[in-house]
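call fold target=ABC transporter ATP-binding protein
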Amino acid sequence: MTLCARHRGLCVTATVAAALGGLAATAAPLLQRWLIDAALAGRDGTLRNLCFAGLLGTVGVAFGGSVWRRRAAQELSLRIEHELRTELFAAVLRSGPRHEGLPTPRQAATRAVADLPPITSLLGMGPLLLGNLVLVVGMSVAMLVLSPGLTAVAAGLGLGLWAVSRRARDRILPAATQVQRRVAELVSAVRSVIAGARVVKSFGREAEQQERLVEAARRLQAAQLDRARLTSRFEPTLQALPTLGQLALLALGGWLAVHQRLSVGTYLAFASYLGQLIAPVRMMSRLVSVGQQARAGAIRVFQVLDAGGLDDAVTSAGSVARPVRTPDGGPPGVRFTAVAFAHGGTPVLRHFSLNVAAGETVALVGPPGAGKSTVARLLVRLHDVQEGRVLVGGRDVRELDVRALRSAVGLVPEDHVVFADTVRANISYSRPGATDEEVRAAARAARADEFVRALPQGYDTVLGERGGSLSGGQRQRLGLARVLCGNPSVLVLDDATSAVDPALEAEVNDALRREFAGRTVILIARRRATIRLADRIVVLEEGRVRDSGTHEELLGRCGVYRRLFAPDSATGGGARSPCAEEPALAPPAPAMTPAPLPRATEQLGFLGLLRRYRGPLAACAALVATDAVAGLGVPLLVRRAIDGGVRHMDFGAVAAATLFGLGIVLADWAVNVVQVRLAATTGERLMLDIRTRLYRHLQALGLDYYEREAAGATLSRVTTEPDLLAGFLQTGLVSVTVSALTVLGVGGSLLIIDAELAWVVLPAFPLLVAATIVFRRRIVPLHRRSRQDLTAVNAYLEENAAGAEAVLLAGREEVNTRRFTELSAVFRHGRARAQRLVALYFPLVQLVTDLAAIVILATGLHRMAAGTLSTGVLVAFLLFLNLLFSPVQQLSQLFDSYQQAAVGMRRMRDFLGTPVSVRSPARPVPVGRLRGDIVLDDVRFAFPGTATEVLAGVTLRITAGETVAVVGASGAGKSTLVKLIARLYEVTGGRILVDGVDVRSYDVSAYRRRLGSVPQEPYFFEGSVRDAIGFAADGATQRAVERAAEAVGLDAVIAALPGGYAHRVEEGGTNLSLSRRQLLALARARLADPDILLLDEATSASDAKAGLGGAAPDGGTRRTTVIVTHRPAVAARADRIVVLDRGVVAEDGTHQELLARDGLYAAMWRVDRTSPGIAPVSGRGGTSAE
């Protein structure tokens, strides 16, 4: 109601228009009553002409009222939908820095996609319900004046409808809530599969994830069928009650008419009124389902809207918003005082105190889980301290304006987000008004300018969502440039160069030394090159400061620091990864070729679906046809009762007609019960079929599709479009069919009863056909466009949900909300244009119908006077025309739903036609245990649509059991090489052989199951730690999972988590640090018991020793291992080192051989090993940790 109150003008317009329409509908039967009674009594023709003029006036008022009611109602619905959607978008961003128990950004986005449609559907029906209410009230007053006895029949009908509706509401609400919950679960599952596409494909788990989605769809199907079962108990009763009321009216009215206490005109008025109740009652029966679903959705939506974030907490605490600055304009100092913080019940920081002087550079180091990243997040208020204080410039951060704080404190997080926009827009993300020179200066400082200028359109190159075509190092440098462009006075770098090579890192660090001047800097460091930038190093362990000092001081006295940064003595050769030598954790896999995923390119269309389900659909059609025929019985029985009973004063004929009608109603009620259940069962089976096809194709698509297409657009095609079709099949298709059959049945009945009078109506049909053709030509393009606009809205929503924290850190809440509001407004305006056509077309159909009724009444009265037409036939004709009006009203409500479903079907068909880039052959070579011989023969690769080759003729042989490290500059093609070996991409030239077989000859999923892949940015599905590790192997035991964790040094970390292996992992692993996620990914690959291990910067965020323990070779002869790394210390321990440079193999040999060659690798080694001591930036002394 509050939302409606914002639009009082539209509400008043819709209310007044609905009231006028209701009053006009009330007046028309009264005028018809007078005309018939006057004709039977032979009264003056002047009054008759006035009555006809009055009827024309009511038709005009009804037409105008219907047009304005529809326009106002739809505009009101669209505006409220727009406001709710934009408020939910703001809530998505607000839920980024959330308290425990509040929805995550992705959960909030799910509710925007899944729960808004039923709410807006109900809002669109609101003014029509109001008009029906006015109609019912007006009819009640008129009936009470005409006949109190017959009014009692109508009152009893009303009470019966109210009682059944209330009972239905109480029983159906829990089922509707469960449906909404299942819809949200399905959307969330699809979203996670899209986000985790690489890990799914890397481990060959497509079939399992498809089954997971299908199982979620089955749960939704079960909930829908449960709701349909409950609906079948009430909807047929609600539809039968008006007909029972008409039969009661026929019996009592016939008795009164036989005893000359009721005129035929009065009976017609009453019958018309009850006939007009059919449309409101059908809507009420639909409202029982839609209303409860909307209520359940509204509860879930307002749970998100009412959940406060940290920014709300600032306001509610009454704190004063203050800017971040110092009196002299210099950088502020940073102080943590006795800070305590726990996440999910796990203490992260314990009495943590640290003072960073203004202009000082401090490095924080420590093992995984020490709390380093948490310090950074507390500083920018992505979390709030639970005890103690965080001060910037001497002020508690909770007293500062949060956007000013984040503008002054620039955090480069360990997770780098690239948005679907130009490079320029990504760099200037926190300063949309930055000049081109400022953008280029930030890129140069981050050493990103060179690779950006090499892109096809340079700084104007549009990057795909998540920056899939960029290397990890390139994404990191863009993230660093983004923060530098914001020109913060405090700079916090959370391992900001972990994915770049040592030589480039040295260049970046040289540039950063200049950028640090005049800034307070906190470095979260895991590499020697980073700690060299610091004036002082602070060691954290278990959430406390253990020591502080220079590199030499800490090496001499701090055991934690020595374990992290003591010099290595790597000489290379003969080593293996920990995954190479361990015994298998699961039984050896036999030669296998999994059943291929069913064909994903099968065409989707209505005709094909109809053929597949022709049996159940034929049964549904027969039941619907029976229902439509039964609906024609009352007018025919009325004609029989009047002509055979009332005219001859024979109540027996009236009673016989009534009893016969009662039998029809009871039979029709049973037919409707069966029909509702059968239609729901058939519709849900059909929807499961459609969803299965979509999920099948979703899993078959290559990784290039996910890197190219926006996740939100894909999510919309796989969830929103099927939901629109499901909504039409569940609530609209049957109503449309009944309405269409009723129109045909009424037309046939009119011709049978009196062909001459029926021909009076026929001239209206060419007009309606012409109007329909014009209407369809105009409306279909608008619906197609609106679906595209909605896809853009959902894509932007999904992108911001995935990067909510990056949005907050850049202070982009208002900018992005404005952009989202613009996208939503474009969708709203497009829908409004379509609704204006709907608001004109369907009232026009009603106008033609009403005018036809006036013509029939005039013609019928003339023929009655001439003695060629009986009163019963005329009354039956008028009642049949009322039946014509009811289907038109139903069609007006459902046509829009049909158009959206049709466009959705077309878009789903287009999605199923998307080419699959990596396919299994028709007769794949069986995949058993692989020896691990890998040969790359003149391998070339370029991304689709680009001419630049990422790999330009790579020839390389890796023997079975060998460990090869692949190194090179960022963007040299290292990650691409690993993806090609895993067949995540398909080579564009040359070939890759594994055990002498072209990898394209293997079944793609069976082949990938023999690989263990660890990407730079690991992804995890929501579940427990045990689930996260066990993803890689079917039926892994608890002991097997524990051994995998122990093998990579993760067991101690897990033991510290609440619940241990049962500890909850959020979608994407966002509640774990990147270093923990990487160790978790190593354990997952370890559990897969692979024959070939592919590590793509698998420990870039881990502290030095942890990284070596997780990825460095250490003995054994069985597994072939390919390690992509920027750490020479890791590469040095491999059997061979391959140096890639601009897509070709520049060097190949052992560590010692490459050092002796004094080429690219030797230069990288020297850069990494140059003076392990710390070179202070400015020679300033550091203050000690408190």
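return ok
The longest strand covers residues 346-356. The radius of gyration is 37 Å.
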